[in-house]
């Protein structure tokens, strides 16, 4: 039994959503899980994964039209759960592709931009990234220094973006820049003169993922490259909420996998002539982890229901991300202790999950910022400054 069956959570799911979850789980078990520890150690991810995930139908799966599946919010969340149960880097690729790059075009792009990019991004033929964070501006994106200036009928962009997932692979980057009229979004295709990327090496987390710096030096773009419906900082923030929703489920996946491998190990590891699963302290650890996973899953499903009804609010997403990521890190660390010294080996997943979750805790809103978002909602007083 695991934390989900303990609470009979599968009975809460629609059959079509369970089918999508099972399809994603089978693909990952066959193609990704056997290799992900090697990719993590090598600090690399095979590019052909993009096409495979496109054929699986998970890239932009919650969007409609233009080759996207139009799946439910719950189905998308369950896919994120299965992806992150294997590795946060895999889920991050899918989140950035679908909920940041594709969503920004789907929500704020012109019809021509949608037709040009969305089918290719959905299939994995093209890869996208989302350039908002800068070296000196993460939690305060309104202070971004990247600037877009009108010159005749064109725009000229200068600036630097940092910690950009998929950046080194991206065929198109959604780049956010300050203008005289506020924040605007631009589609920057790879190969545009003045646009370059540099992959970030030496990571201790998210190693099975491409993370890059974007550099824009007098990048000249036509007016047709601007996202016409993105007219304020609210546009990129709404994209981040789409991605954060996937994290709410993804974190549960990392915690669930950590629990499962620790439980299985405890049943076979013998000390003092009996499996360590028979000891009270180990059972207490497993019980506490199971409660954290089950509670996180119930919260995720509740938020999915709100999203499907069109009433999900940003502070509710903050509650989900803050709770589930912090809980998942605690579960992964506790699970690692059950393995003793063996737990630091890549043979077992909990410490890899814990390392990855350190990044998840920070990106798309740090835990501190999400706590302040909740404080703002609860008191009516913004304490960001």
Automatic annotation (TrEMBL):
<keyword id="KW-0274">FAD</keyword>
<dbReference type="InterPro" id="IPR006091">
    <property type="entry name" value="Acyl-CoA_Oxase/DH_mid-dom"/>
</dbReference>
<comment type="similarity">
    <text>Belongs to the acyl-CoA dehydrogenase family.</text>
</comment>
<keyword id="KW-0560">Oxidoreductase</keyword>
<dbReference type="InterPro" id="IPR009100">
    <property type="entry name" value="AcylCoA_DH/oxidase_NM_dom_sf"/>
</dbReference>
<dbReference type="InterPro" id="IPR046373">
    <property type="entry name" value="Acyl-CoA_Oxase/DH_mid-dom_sf"/>
</dbReference>
<feature type="domain" description="Acyl-CoA oxidase/dehydrogenase middle">
    <location>
        <begin position="129"/>
        <end position="219"/>
    </location>
</feature>
<dbReference type="InterPro" id="IPR009075">
    <property type="entry name" value="AcylCo_DH/oxidase_C"/>
</dbReference>
<dbReference type="Pfam" id="PF00441">
    <property type="entry name" value="Acyl-CoA_dh_1"/>
</dbReference>
<dbReference type="InterPro" id="IPR052033">
    <property type="entry name" value="Glutaryl-CoA_DH_mitochondrial"/>
</dbReference>
<protein>
    <submittedName>
        <fullName>Acyl-CoA dehydrogenase family protein</fullName>
    </submittedName>
</protein>
<keyword id="KW-0285">Flavoprotein</keyword>
<keyword id="KW-0809">Transit peptide</keyword>
<dbReference type="Pfam" id="PF02770">
    <property type="entry name" value="Acyl-CoA_dh_M"/>
</dbReference>
<dbReference type="InterPro" id="IPR037069">
    <property type="entry name" value="AcylCoA_DH/ox_N_sf"/>
</dbReference>
<dbReference type="Pfam" id="PF02771">
    <property type="entry name" value="Acyl-CoA_dh_N"/>
</dbReference>
<dbReference type="InterPro" id="IPR013786">
    <property type="entry name" value="AcylCoA_DH/ox_N"/>
</dbReference>
<feature type="domain" description="Acyl-CoA dehydrogenase/oxidase N-terminal">
    <location>
        <begin position="15"/>
        <end position="125"/>
    </location>
</feature>
<dbReference type="InterPro" id="IPR036250">
    <property type="entry name" value="AcylCo_DH-like_C"/>
</dbReference>
<feature type="domain" description="Acyl-CoA dehydrogenase/oxidase C-terminal">
    <location>
        <begin position="237"/>
        <end position="377"/>
    </location>
</feature>
């Amino acid at each position: 039994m695991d934390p989900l069956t303990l609470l009979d959570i599968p009975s809460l799911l629609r059959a079509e959503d369970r089918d999508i979850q099972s399809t994603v789980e089978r693909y990952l078990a066959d193609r990704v899980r056997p290799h992900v520890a090697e990719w993590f150690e090598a600090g690399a991810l095979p590019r052909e994964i993009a096409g495979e995930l496109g054929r699986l139908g998970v890239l932009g799966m919650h969007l409609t039209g233009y080759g996207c599946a139009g799946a439910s919010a719950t189905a998308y969340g369950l896919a994120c759960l299965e992806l992150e149960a294997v590795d946060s880097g895999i889920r991050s690729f899918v989140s950035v592709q679908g909920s940041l790059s594709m969503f920004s075009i789907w929500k704020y792009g012109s019809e021509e931009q949608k037709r040009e990019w969305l089918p290719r991004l959905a299939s994995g033929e093209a890869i996208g990234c989302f350039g908002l964070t800068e070296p000196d501006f993460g939690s305060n994106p309104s202070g971004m220094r990247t600037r877009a200036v009108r010159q005749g009928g064109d725009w000229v962009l200068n600036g630097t973006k940092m910690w950009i997932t998929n950046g080194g692979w991206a065929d198109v980057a959604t780049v956010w820049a300050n203008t005289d009229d506020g924040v605007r979004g631009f589609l920057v295709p790879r190969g545009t003169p003045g646009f370059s990327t540099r992959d970030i090496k030496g990571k201790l987390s998210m190693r099975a993922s491409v993370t890059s710096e974007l550099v824009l030096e007098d990048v000249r773009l036509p007016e047709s490259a601007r996202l016409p419906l993105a007219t304020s900082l609210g546009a990129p923030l709404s994209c981040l909420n789409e991605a954060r929703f996937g994290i709410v489920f993804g974190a549960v996946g990392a915690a669930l996998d950590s629990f499962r491998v620790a439980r299985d190990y405890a049943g076979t590891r013998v000390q003092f002539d009996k499996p360590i699963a028979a000891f009270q302290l180990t059972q207490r650890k497993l019980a506490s982890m199971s409660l954290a996973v089950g509670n996180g899953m119930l919260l995720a499903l509740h938020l999915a229901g709100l999203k499907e009804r069109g009433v999900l609010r940003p502070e509710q997403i903050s509650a989900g991300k803050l709770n589930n990521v912090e809980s998942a890190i605690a579960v992964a660390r506790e699970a690692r202790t059950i393995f003793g010294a063996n737990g630091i080996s890549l043979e077992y997943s909990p410490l890899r999950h814990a390392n990855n979750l350190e990044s998840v805790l920070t990106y798309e809103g740090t835990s501190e910022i999400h706590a302040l978002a909740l404080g703002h909602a609860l008191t009516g007083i913004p304490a960001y400054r």
